[in-house]
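User: My collaborator and I are trying to settle a disagreement about how two of our proteins should look. Neither of us wants to argue from intuition anymore, so we agreed to look at predicted structures for both before our next call. Could you fold the first one, then the second, and keep them clearly separated?

Assistant: That sounds like a sensible way to settle it. I'll keep them separate. The first protein:
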Amino acid sequence: MSLYSEGGTSSPDLYIGVACILTIFLATLLNLIVLNDNYNKSTSIARNLYLVLALTDLIAVWVILGPYAVSVLMPCQDAQCIPWDHMTKATVEDKVYNVLSWTMSLLPAHVTAFLAITRYLQIRDPLRVIRFRVVLVLPRTLR
């Protein structure tokens, strides 16, 4: 399903596909570096949240950009060439992919919010030991 040509060989298709592949490569490399660095640190809430953030970002990049890069670079077959204004019924695979991609695209933002909350608590009271339930309850008390 190329975007700008019938065969996936136009310049915009190649640029978009190569940009997706480079983004996947760089995000994988950098997230693995973050995972390795935080895995060797002592256990804390911030360390665990950084590990979860790196994992969710890594999975999000592969779940969202991987299939998109493949679909942009894939040559368009007659059965796959569907006009943009044509509506098709969503299959089970489409629904599962949409749920996964939406969840994985929003999860890194939520983990980053939890990281900001833990940093706020550490700056406000540096000698206090932070429990994870405090991090979960704090956004409700700040409203």
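The second protein, kept apart from the first:
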Amino acid sequence: HPEIASQSGKKFLLGMALEDRDIVQSASFGVGLIAEHAPVQFQPIKQAAVTQLMQIIGEADARSEDKEVCTECAIGALGKIVLLHYDNAIVNQAHVHQYLTMLPLKAESEEAQNVHKLFFKHILGKNTALFGVPENKDKIVGALARIKEIATTKPTLEILDT
């Protein structure tokens, strides 16, 4: 339903700008879903979505206990955009680097599992956003090492879908 996806995307952008972290979290998740499942309808909101997600992720207290789940939802949405909509213009290597340095996710196991699974899939697929520049190799290896470390040392977080 292209029209529903288009209208929803615009509403999600509005929700991402609110103060209520629960709404921001849900809106960020929604933007990620549209990026993943309605790529054509996502294009008109891509610039605004990336800008707002980077603002959410970049807040000084983004990793505080009150905001961590919301922030990780925004990181997950940014990851979908980076992996599926990289254009080296609106979505560029600065966004790829931001995404890679924010992994692993660990606040909410289901979201963490989905984000990490998508990341692994795109590593195996040699995604251009990830492998387009040689400097990313170390960042990818670092992200994988951090995911492995958390999965091994804190298995109760269930950040991997086993």
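Some points you might bring to the call about the second protein. The longest helix spans residues 68-85. The two ends are 33 Å apart (CA to CA).
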